[in-house]
Structure formats: C-alpha cells, structure tokens
Amino acid sequence: MKTFNELNIEANVLDALAKMGFETTTPIQAQAIPTALEGKDLIGQAQTGTGKTTAFGVPMIQKIDPENKDVQGIVIAPTRELAIQVGEELNRIGHNKGVKTVPIYGGQDITRQIKALKRRPQLITATPGRLLDHIRRRTIKLQNIETVVLDEADEMLNMGFIEDIEAILAEMPQKHQTLLFSATMPKRIQLLAEKFMNQPEIVRVKSKQLTVDHIDQYYYDVKENQKFDVLCRSLDIESPDLAIIFGRTKKRVDEVVEGLLKRGYSAEGIHGDIPQVKREKVIKRFKDQATDILVATDVAARGLDISGVTHVYNFDLPQDPESYVHRIGRTGRAGKKGSAYTFVTPREMDHLKTIEKLTKRQIEKQSFPTYKDVMEGLQEGAIEELKQTVWAHEGDNYREAAKRLLSEEDAVDVVASAIKLLAKEPSQTPVNLTSVEPLRVKRVKGGGQQNNRGGRGGNQNRRGGGGGGRRRRNNQKQDGGNRRNNRNKNQ
Ligand SMILES: Nc1ncnc2c1ncn2[C@@H]1O[C@H](COP(=O)(O)OP(=O)(O)OP(=O)(O)O)[C@@H](O)[C@H]1O
Ligand SMILES: [Mg+2]
C-alpha cells in the first residue's frame, strides 16, 4: 500500500491529509492522483466508499494558486447534500493551504450564496441548476477555471442532468482539466463522456465485483403487503446502529416513516419535497445518531458518507441496477462491514437477476424473521442481561425487596414478568401502506433494457437548483414519457 508521501503531494496538503487521519492511500487514490497531477483528463471508477472524493480533491487543490482569488475549480454533484459534503471534505484538504470551498445548491437563499461568493472561494461544489443560475447572473465567473469534476459522473450525464451539464461545460474556458468519478460507469455513458473530454485516461480499480465485498447482501422474497412487518422484524433482530431504508416514491417514504414512528422506532424521512432546511436537519440528526433510521428516496442513494450506517434496506427495488450499487454502498464504507437487505416481490425476481448480473455477485435469499423469532431473540437477550446482572452482583442491594416479593408471588411468575419487561416486546400496531406496483422494465429495440429513469427534478427542482427534471427530453413514447414524468414527481 502506498502512502500519500510517495505521490508528489505538496507539504501543506499532506499535512491536512494526516490531520484527517488518512495514513495510506486507497487504490483509487494511488492510481488517480498521479495521473490527475500530470494534468490529464481522467475517468475514475472505484467501488463505493473507497475515497474517490480525496482522489479528485487532492490534485484539484494542489493546482490552485492560493494568492489568486478567482474560482479555479468546480465539482458538480447530483444532490444538494452531496455538494455540501464534498465541500466540507475539500475544505479540510485545502485548510492548510488556505484554499476555500463554498457549496452552492438549490433550496438555499441565493443572496446568502452571493455573499459567500464575495468572500472569494477558489473552489465551488455545486448542484447543476443553481450553478447555472449563478453563471447566468455572473455571480460565478468561469474564466479561470482549471479543473471541473463531475462526481457521480454517470448520474450527471444521464437524462435528468445532461442538458444542464452541457450548458455548464459550454461556458468553461477552452483549456481545463475534466475529472469524472463514479462507482458505476455504464459503457454508453463512458462513450458520451469521452466526447467532451480530451483523451481521458481511464483509471479503473480492478475488482471482481462492482459492490464492496464486506457488505453482506441478502434478499427477502416477500409479498407487497408483507413488506412492512418484515422490515420491522428484521430491524428488531438486526438492531442496526444506523439504517437507511430506500423507498421508491416520496409518498412511500412518508408512509414508511409514519408507520415506523407508530411502532416506536426513531425514524425520519428525506426526499425532494422536504424543504431544504429540514433536509439538512434530518441528515444532521442522523449523522449525530439522534435518529436511528433514515427513510429516503434515491436522493440519498449516491455519495453520502455517514459513518455508523450498518444496514441498508431496499424496501422497494431501485429503478436501475446501478442505483442498487450506490444505495447499498451507503454502508460498508472505508473498510467497515455492512449488511444490505433487498425486498423482492414475486414479479420482480427478474430485476434481482439483472442486479446480480451487473454486480457479478449473488444475493443470498434470507427467510424472513417472524414475530416468534423476534420474541425468542428478545427473550434470550433479556435472560442474558439478567444473568450478567446476577453474576456481577449488581442486584445485591435489591435482595430484601426480592425476598418480600417472593413471599407474596410465585417465583416463576416474577421472573417471567422481569423477562417480559426487559425484552421490550415490539409493537404490533397495524400499519397499512398504500401498495406500490411491482417494478417494471420497458424492453426497447435491440434487446436492451430501458429503465424508467428520468430526471432527478423531483430531488431538486430546477428553481430549487439541481436536477434538470423539467427539461427532460420528451421524445419518448407517451407511455415512457409519462412514466418518467411520474418518477420525477415521485422522488
Ligand atoms: N486514504 C484514506 N484512509 C482512510 N480513510 C479514507 C481515506 N480516503 C478516504 N477515506 C474515508 O473513506 C470514506 C469514504 O470516502 P468517499 O466518500 O470519498 O468514498 P467514495 O469512493 O466517493 O464513495 P461513493 O462512491 O459512495 O461516493 C470517507 O469517510 C473518507 O473520509
Ligand atoms: Mg463519492
């Protein structure tokens, strides 16, 4: 394994990396940093949670002249939360060098952003829609841009964003370096990307599988109306530190949150209809572990790095197999272990196969836990807790009270009641979700599959800054167009 010292990185950046606790490089960092430092255009692909942010952040910051107060680099990301997170990481890497980064994203007061821009950051992390707004208002000037990064590049070059990205790139100065990063890079998107890059070097970390191997992957074969109970039972048995649950639509997310709260879990939701200030609060509370469960649309599928996420649930299958890779990649980051559970209804089995084909990995079927399994598990846990307390003599001060109780009640009844109290029986409050249709894939000519993905307009509407949902191309057949429309509205 290489250290950062071997990569010709300047001292103050090395210092910052050491302060961040990074000792050795990850493979994508070892491979991409030297190539990017040579000034070459680059497409970097490596698994989720393997340090791609630093892989583009270091060369980008190294190129900056801290005396020059113009914007010299821009990272474009598909969601507001990701723009914020990448901005924070760049601020850490650039701290010692005096390089400032400002995040610019939809849903935040534009005058506040203009004020932040007046403090002359050299780097900007942005969602596309809001970035375009600033470019047009001339509050962001691009003439001194040296580096453009598309984080989650395949997503940025997909239908929902491509027109915004093209518009932004058209404004860039002739000579600039372009870096593209993602954990997934479908061939057609790579070919598209190469058109606006200058002989890009492809840096791909070799791995047998597309997903990280320390994420255990399972699926539950469930009927639509069983999903919620299976979810609760699984949460009870697994007791995740933090879990992210992905639902297909905003309504779905709201309903799952409501159901979880009814049953006493600590859960909050995030999707495109939630006001930005609230979105940021929800993420913060989840990061601080004040909320245990985040229920989300695909707005949280890409890039988010939240430590402590031990479990990801695909309550509904994702629209496309790439999204599966990103969603489950919210756990198992930086070498940690994680578990991913995917709910598959009988008519969706084909989708599971498509996912397995893409990831080159089998997803193991898991029989789902019943209420009885959960109760047994909880009772075992309670008994274990009692035994530990006995062995540690922690009950010594309560012996008199115990004797008095036993003189009045049957001993077995007393212990049984203690176990019941400790086991905290899970709530069985009935919860009925509006059922969703099984995922369908439209077959298109040529035998390929066309999934009904569309813009991410719902995540961040145009005014709100971000997805180019409303500019979606409308040359599809009625059916496809409508479905994409629905997706935009639903996320
Ligand atoms: N060299 C390193 N040593 C230790 N930890 C690192 C190193 N580089 C990055 N990390 C940590 O690994 C985690 C994942 O990094 P990052 O978010 O950049 O992953 P990614 O490859 O961009 O993932 P995704 O595809 O999901 O966006 C972060 O918490 C980051 O701080
Ligand atoms: Mg990333």
Automatic annotation (TrEMBL):
What EC class is this?
Answer: hydrolase
Q: Region Disordered: which residues?
A: 433-491
Ranges of Gly residues compositional bias?
Answer: 446-468
* GO CC term, one of those recorded: cytosol
Q: Which InterPro entries does the entry link to?
A: DEAD/DEAH_box_helicase_dom, DEAD/DEAH_RhlB, DEAD_box_RNA_helicases, Helicase_ATP-bd, Helicase_C-like, P-loop_NTPase, RNA-helicase_DEAD-box_CS, RNA_helicase_DEAD_Q_motif
**Residue intervals of the Helicase C-terminal domain:** 214-376
Protein's UniProt keywords contain tRNA-binding: no
Q: Give the enzyme's EC designation.
A: 3.6.4.13
Motif interval(s): Q motif:
2-30
- Protein's name according to its UniProt entry: ATP-dependent RNA helicase CshA
High-level lineage: Bacteria, Bacillati, Bacillota, Bacilli, Bacillales
